[in-house]
Write a structure and sequence with these properties.
- With 592 residues, the chain is an alpha/beta fold.
- The strands form 2 sheets. Strands 1-2-3-5-7-8-9-10-11-12-13-14-15-16-17 form a 15-stranded parallel beta sheet.
- α18 links the parallel β11 and β12.
- α3 packs parallel to α5 and α16 packs parallel to α17.
- It starts with a helix and ends in a 13-residue tail after the last strand.
Length: 592
Amino acid sequence: MSFRQNCSIACCRTCLHWHCRSYKRICQLTSGIALTVLTITMETVENVEGWEERYGILDAAWRALHKVRWPGFGQQKQAVPWLDKQDEAKYDSVDDWQQLYWEAHLQDCVDAVAETALLPSYDGSIAEIKIPDGILQQIGLSGHLIILTSDCPKFSYHCQKFAAYARQLRLPNALCVAETCDLLRSSKLGNLELQWIKSTDHVEGLCKLLNHNSKTLKSIHFVHCKLSTTFINAICDSLQIKNLQAHAVEQFSIKRSSFLQTDSSPIPVGLVSFLTSGRSLQSLTLCDDQLGRNFARVIFNSLLDVSASISKLDLSENDISGFLSQFRWRSSSCPSGIGKSLQSLQVLNLRFCNLVSDDANCLKQALLHMPSLENLDLSDNYIEGGFRNVIAYFTEISGRELPFADLKLENCELTCDQVIELLGVLSTMKKPLNLLSIKGNRLGSKIGMSLGKFLHTGVCAVDIEDIGLGSSGFREALKEISKELKIAYINISNNQGGIEAARFLSNLVSHAHKITSIDARYNLMPAESLSVISAGLKASKGTLEHLDLSGNSLCDQLVDEASVLAEFRINGHRALNISLSAAPNVPFDNDP
């Protein structure tokens, strides 16, 4: 069969591997890919001159193959549909689909091998574990082809062939052993996620792997681990690049794990050394790790002395009330001694940290030393009267040139008067917010007018789920919407707005020419709401892509859902994803 004929194969299972060399039409087939739905014609390649152009065509073929095998890649459903486009952008930014294909294949192999290695009864070699037939068939290694070599089904074969393509991997504890490091010796890992690290054996094998990839590792994530001081010191030491006494890690994360020590114990020396020697460190996450205030205080104070330009700090879901109590006197006694880390910090996540009123003043002082801060999450903290310090902080930065992008104050038990004052301050910001979320605060209908006015500030996304707006709150908000809005996403669910919620939506979509997603679940909207919303869509610019009306009374009364959807989509001027699921048959609970 000629080369041209080989390249015209469609809907068959063969193997394709392209080798492009400058200005030479050399392509050859090697072991590799299950070609399920793909047609490649040689005319396309022959009509293009230059290596770069041919490479682009061939890379598109690898992308097509990847999409056939993993159709959900880059399309994970976001809780906020408006954010889906950010994932699409990441998907489009991939520049080497051949590398990504074999990396994903190796991860499938790792996951499959882990299922066997985790069995208590298995005590054999990891290298000898066989890859399931379903995975082998995807790359054409099934049936008579396996007879050619008995090593093809073994994990060692796939590591030997494809480890060089691996840039990121997810490894459970059973594979964190010295043997795995030997199998992956040709890899150049940049991103590594480790799960369930608990024993000395796990740590010893992991340290060997970390040391082997210390020059290339940029991102390390630990999940569901139990880490003693000895373990932490060993792990951090293994990341140090030989002869440099520094590391190249940019993102370091420990989530849903525990440090096997009390809060009064000194934190691991290796961790402090890791933080202070990381000139490239950009992001530090210690989320849901059962940290105490002393541990968090040492971490925070260590960051004041580092030379790295850290842009993200996440200490969420730890009981660390009081961890900033020493910051006020330290910063006032040494105003010029605040390190680069706070100067460059852009994202601070303190969600569910048990912060109270006394923490708010110290927090304000710390925030004022973060001139680049753009994203702040204080959700699930009951700071009560201390909230005036948060408002005072935004008052002080309202005139700065750098925009403050995202603010989350969910479930903070804020009062209506506090939020009205906050919205007034945020409305004076020189640059409008990108996102504001105050969901879960029972503010009542009185907040409606202020919310309606705030929508005119240029904010792009607002989450006001379950704030107790009610019909009168929506009515007051509606009165304030009289000119074009820039909002792209809004969540008004669980506010029991009835027909007034529908009228608010209708007016909103007719004035928001960039709106793409609306969540209006559980608002007790009756059947007549459909015609009201449809009229608003007819008057809109047709940009709306997602509309969730699930759990409303109208969903229980639909006779012909198909015709309703058709009418909405016609009036929306484009394909519109609408949810009309009925509410579960349970009594409504209006108790906050």
